[in-house]
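Structure ticket #2291
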Amino acid sequence: MSRFRRPSLGSEFGYVPGEQPPDDGEWLKLNTNEAPLPPSPAVARAVADAAAGLRRYPDPFGEPLRSELARYHGVDAEQVLVLNGADQAIDCCFRAFCEPGDMVVYPAPSYSLFPVLAQVFGVGPVEVPLDTGFTLPAALGTAPGALRFVVNPNAPTGVWMPPDGVEELVGGAPGVVVVDEAYADFAPASCVPLLQRHDNWLVLRTFSKAHALAGLRIGYAVGGADLIADLAAVKDSYPIDRCAVAGALAALDDVAHHRAIVDLVCAQRDRVTARLRAGGWDVPPSHGNFVFARPPDGDALGWLHRLRDAKILVRHFASPNDRLRITIGAPPDNDRLLAALGL
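Resolution: structure written out below.
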C-alpha cells in the first residue's frame, strides 16, 4: 500500500475474487460459480451488431433492456435499475441508504463483498451467524440497521428459504431490506412478487449465472419506484454499455437456452451431491449452482491443494467448520472432479 491510502482501510483491505487461471483448456474452473454452458448463440451476434454503435454513449438506464426486464417481472420500468453487475447494485445500496456510522446487517457466512463495502463507506457491520443447518437466523430481521441483506439462496451454503419464510423473517425489519437473488434461477421461487407488499424491499438479480454472461457484467435491482430512484441518483453516469445491453436482451429472449442451463445445473447438482454424500462428505441441500461440502476427514484445505495439483480450482472456506464450495460444471467436468476426489 502507498502512504496515501486511508489508514482506516489497512494494508490487507480489499475484496479477493476467485482465482482466474489462463484460458488454456487445462484448468477446470469450479471456484467462481460460472455457468457450465456457453451463453445463447444469439448473444454473440447481438454483441457484434451493437459494437457498430460504440462511438455513441449507451442509454444511461440501460434501455431497452430495462423495459424488457420490467415486462419479464410484471412491474413498471421505473421499478427496475440495470447496473454493471449485481455488485454495483450492492455498492449503490450503501451509497444511497447508509450514512457513515450507520449499521448494515447480513448473515455470516455470506457474500464477502458486504464487509468490504461497509469499510469503504464507514458503515458498521452486523454479522448475524447462521442457525443450525445454515438456515437464516431470526436476528437477521430484528438487529437494528439502516440496510440489511438477505442472500437467498445463500452463498456459500446454497441453502434457500421460501419467499413466505423470507417475509416472516424480515417483513417487519427496519431500514432497507435487500434480497440478493443471484442464484434464484436455480431455486423454486423468487421474492419479486412480494415487493408490492413491502415498500422498503429491493430484489437483486444477475445475468452472470443462469444466462452465462458473467463476462458482460449485467445485474439489476427491482423494487418500488422511490427506492429505485434513490439508487439511480448515486449510480455511475453510464453503468452498462451497449454490448452488454444487447447481449442481455438476446439472452433474455432465448428462453429455451436459459432453461437448458438451469435444468443441467439442477440435475448435475443432485448427481454431485449424491456422489459426495455416498463418499462420506457432508453436503447441505443446495439451491444454487454449487455445493458446500465438508470432506469425511475434515481436511478441506488439504483437498483444496490436492485438487489444485490436478488443475481443478474450488473455493475454500475455513468457517464454518472447514468446507469447499464447488461450482457445478458440465457432466465431463463433474466426472473429472469426482475422479480426483476418488469418488
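Closing remark: The domain at 41-253 is CATH 3.40.640.10 (Aspartate Aminotransferase; domain 2).
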